[in-house]
């Protein structure tokens, strides 16, 4: 099973997004783990994930997050603004899948 960590400033909006991604994955019979946390705890989870998805409002942190993730081979991507704003779990799942391939 692949694991995704979503981060936003406090973990609140990403919590709703994580739930919607889990629902979208379940509807498609895709086994995936999705957690949402604050950006301040990324280092606590980085060893256990395959993809780090970042809220678009935190795009200024991209390089710092890539520096944290790179030693673990974890991809870091900014969630598309429209999908994030609409809490569109299907769209974010579609966006994430290519980054989860082995």
From TrEMBL:
Keyword set, alphabetical order: Kinase, Phosphoprotein, Phosphotransferase system, Sugar transport, Transferase, Transport
InterPro entries from the UniProt entry: PTS_EIIB-like_sf, PTS_EIIB_2/3, PTS_EIIB_3, PTS_sugar-specific_EIIB
Keyword Cell division attributed: no
PROSITE patterns: PTS_EIIB_TYPE_3
Record GO biological process: phosphoenolpyruvate-dependent sugar phosphotransferase system
Matches recorded under CDD domains: PTS_IIB_chitobiose_lichenan
Pfam families listed in its UniProt record: PTS_IIB
Domain PTS EIIB type-3: 1-102
Molecular-function GO terms, alphabetical: kinase activity; protein-N(PI)-phosphohistidine-sugar phosphotransferase activity
Residue numbers carrying Phosphocysteine: 8
SUPFAM superfamilies xref list: PTS system IIB component-like (SSF52794)
The protein's name: PTS sugar transporter subunit IIB
The organism of origin for this protein: Clostridium innocuum
């Amino acid at each position: 099973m692949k694991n995704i960590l979503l981060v936003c400033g406090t973990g609140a909006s990403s919590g709703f997004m994580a739930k919607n991604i889990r629902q979208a994955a379940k509807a498609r019979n895709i086994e995936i783990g999705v957690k949402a946390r604050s950006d301040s705890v990324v280092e606590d989870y980085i060893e256990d994930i395959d993809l780090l998805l970042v809220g678009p409002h935190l795009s200024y942190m991209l390089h710092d997050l890539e520096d944290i993730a790179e030693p673990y081979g974890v991809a870091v991507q900014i969630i598309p603004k429209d999908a994030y704003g609409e809490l569109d779990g299907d769209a974010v799942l579609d966006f994430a899948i290519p980054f989860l391939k082995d």
